[in-house]
């Protein structure tokens, strides 16, 4: 979190075969959302779930469900949240980084199961999982929490995380999108962030060459072997492969916790209250 048109782009997918140029067009755009910060594709129920912050700090946050073709299905699917941000799914449960902790919700009916408190957290932001263990970023706390078997712990604290925001589980490591060095309560930084990788076994933090000092990164995902991440203030989305970050497109200020599913890239726009779907071809 930090505080149109059809596009053509050159997105390079790195792999064992020759890299191929890709194009993307805007498939649809849904408006009328209230500070949408995150989106996740719920495969089991064939729908998108959007986290709406509403007014920061107020208990007016909620989750909406959206059809794959961009129709609002249930605007107030889950209510009573404060500032819902990143999400992850394990089995039949959805986990949301909220101001009060990690909220667990039943996908079947949207009922809140429990809230896992993450003691000492200052600004919970995004969630990633390997299917059993959850990792949650704490931006102002320069930390990552781990929740396993219902037990929560502050797993890693280090300024090298660059004010961790977005997080993506990538095999034996976490990919972290950081807002930047020296972050202050107003989200200003002394230096832009970007991508770092955290080894799950050793907790070693490695800056991803060519993708740091570049952006105040909010969302992080992968398309094939290409890492997709954004710069929240400018709305620029990048593709990172072979040590190089290439701008894909710019959607406008406020791009947040994006999601990739198949050939679709979903991007919430906080400032305009929209969810944009881009089709990659």
| CA-based gyration radius | 17 Å
CA-based shape: globular
The average pLDDT value, as a whole number, equals: 90
| Helical residue percent band | under 10%
- List SSEs in N-to-C order: EEEEEEEEEEEEEEEEEEEEEEEE
Roughly how many Å apart are the termini? 28 Å
What's the CATH H-level homologous superfamily?
Answer: TolB, C-terminal domain
How does this structure look, described?
The chain is mainly β and 281 residues long. It has a single domain (24-280), classed as Neuraminidase, CATH 2.120.10. It has strands at residues 24-30, 36-42, 47-52, 61-66, 72-81, 87-90, 93-98, 101-106, 112-116, 124-129, 134-138, 143-148, 151-157, 164-170, 173-181, 191-199, 205-215, 220-223, 226-231, 236-241, 244-250, 259-261, 264-269, 274-280. The protein has a four-stranded antiparallel β-sheet with strand order 1-24-23-22, with no helix packed on it. A four-stranded antiparallel β-sheet has the order 2-3-4-5, with no helix packed on it. Strands 6-7-8-9 form a four-stranded antiparallel β-sheet, with no helix packed on it. Strand 18 and strand 19 (226-231) form a beta hairpin. The radius of gyration is 17 Å and the shape is globular.
Blueprint (SSEs and pairs):
Elements: E1 24-30, E2 36-42, E3 47-52, E4 61-66, E5 72-81, E6 87-90, E7 93-98, E8 101-106, E9 112-116, E10 124-129, E11 134-138, E12 143-148, E13 151-157, E14 164-170, E15 173-181, E16 191-199, E17 205-215, E18 220-223, E19 226-231, E20 236-241, E21 244-250, E22 259-261, E23 264-269, E24 274-280
Antiparallel strand pairs: 1-24, 2-3, 3-4, 4-5, 6-7, 7-8, 8-9, 10-11, 11-12, 12-13, 14-15, 15-16, 16-17, 18-19, 19-20, 20-21, 22-23, 23-24
